[in-house]
């Protein structure tokens, strides 16, 4: 492989690495609980806070953050999140979230 080809190959490889990093930095609405470790719940909550901020009208991140707040024994914040998730479900009118709706309702009951 000549010097020009090697330089081109290295440049292509670096481009792919950068592209991969950009893709992995995108926050999907269902990524709050990705890679959660029991000894790093604060870090998981910080990530989930970013996911909620990136998807403010999606009830799923609020539902996931409810779980993290519950594990961190912050019931008030957990109940605020699940109430917000329930409100988002109602305002969206989405009927395709039947499993999510049931999960949110069960969690909301735990706050009453």
Structure description:
This protein is mostly helical and 112 residues long. The chain is 71% helix and 0% strand. The N and C termini lie far apart (69 Å).
Please tally the β strands and state the result: 0
Low-confidence stretches: 6-12, 15-23
Give the topology string: H per helix, E per strand: HHHHH
Rounded to the nearest angstrom, the distance between the terminal CA atoms is 69 Å
* Residue-averaged pLDDT: 80
Tell me the quaternary state. Answer: single chain
Structural class: mainly alpha
> Could you describe the largest sheet, including whether it forms a barrel?
none
Overall radius of gyration: 20 Å
* Molecular shape: globular
Structure annotation, total helices: 5
Helicity range of the residues?
over 70%
Q: How much strand content do the residues show?
A: under 5%
Q: What's a quick, concise take on this entry?
A:
The protein contains five helices and no strands. The protein has helices spanning about 5-25, 40-55, 60-70, 75-90, 100-110. The model is unreliable at about 5-10 and about 15-25 (pLDDT under 50).
